[in-house]
Amino acid sequence: DTAVSQTPKYLVTQMGNDKSIKCEQNLGHDTMYWYKQDSKKFLKIMFSYNNKELIINETVPNRFSPKSPDKAHLNLHINSLELGDSAVYFCASSPASGASSYNEQFFGPGTRLTVL
Amino acid sequence: AQSVAQPEDQVNVAEGNPLTVKCTYSVSGNPYLFWYVQYPNRGLQFLLKYITGDNLVKGSYGFEAEFNKSQTSFHLKKPSALVSDSALYFCAVRDLNSGNTPLVFGKGTRLSVIA
């Protein structure tokens, strides 16, 4: 059973389009995250949700909007895609309530987004 | 502000030799420290963490790391490297005194184990 799953695995789209990436975890965790990994493999957090509530929103353009319909899902919607959005996006989850915890995070396999 | 540095972009080691991947950190309070590994086209996998207690932490796949407060370091080690250890390794830190702050990752170190 996949603990943290993401769909799609690959996403190729044109500039200006709107797209969504879905994430689901079956670990019963309270906290979920979105990370962006750029072409140099640098990993940076974008958002964190705890029990469907947004708790971290780093300096991300407002074209990116996370949505958490329940604590097992955290989707990422991106409007008006730009070339610089091309990256691998990782979803993750952890058991503790809140980002300031010592629990490790469990990562999904990633979604490679290519904007043409 | 919290930060973590991995001074080496690439580490090469022969199979069977010991390996070390370096990590230093900066926090205002006490740190939570983590090591993750990323294999090609995969998500990150947790290896080990330091919270408190014994400075030597043992983790998955025979890896260990030593927390050194005076040197603000948390180097990852393995006594005998395997070719299958070749991957990208990330060190990460959270300052437990900084409220609801996220985990901060280093830029990663690529480990190449040569047969």
Description:
- The complex is a heterodimer of chains A (116) and B (115).
- Chain A is mainly β and 116 residues long.
- Chain A is built from no helices and eleven strands.
- In chain A, strands 2, 4, 5, 6, 9, 10 and 11 form a seven-stranded mixed sheet that branches. In chain A, strands 1-3-8-7 form a four-stranded antiparallel sheet, with no helix packed on it.
- The radius of gyration of chain A is 13 Å and the shape is globular.
- In chain A, 34% of the residues are buried.
- By secondary structure, chain B is an all-beta fold.
- Chain B contains no helices and twelve strands.
- In chain B, the strands form three sheets. In chain B, strands 2, 5, 6, 10, 11 and 12 form a six-stranded mixed sheet that branches. A four-stranded antiparallel sheet of chain B has the order 3-9-8-7, with no helix packed on it. Chain B has a two-stranded antiparallel sheet with strand order 1-4.
- In chain B, a hairpin with a 5-residue loop joins strand 5 and strand 6.
- The relative contact order of chain B is 0.34.
- Chains A and B meet through strand 5 and strand 10 of A and strand 5, strand 6 and strand 10 of B.
> Any idea what the radius of gyration of chain A is?
13 Å
- Work out the number of β strands of chain B: 12
Strand content of chain B: over 45%
Helix tally of chain A equals 0
Helix content of chain A: under 10%
Topology order of chain A in helix (H) and strand (E) letters: EEEEEEEEEEE
**How would a crystallographer describe the biggest sheet of chain B?**
6 strands, mixed
Shape of chain A: globular
Rg estimate of chain B, integer Å: 14 Å
Overall geometric form of chain B = globular
Biggest interface reads: A-B, 25 and 25 residues
Mean pLDDT of chain A: 91
| Oligomeric assembly | heterodimer
Model regions low in confidence, pLDDT < 50 over at least 5 residues of chain B: none
Tally of contiguous helical segments of chain B:
0
Q: How is the biggest beta sheet of chain A arranged? A: 7 strands, mixed
Order of helices and strands of chain B: EEEEEEEEEEEE
- Give the percentage of residues in beta strands of chain A: over 45%
- Number of β-strand runs of chain A: 11
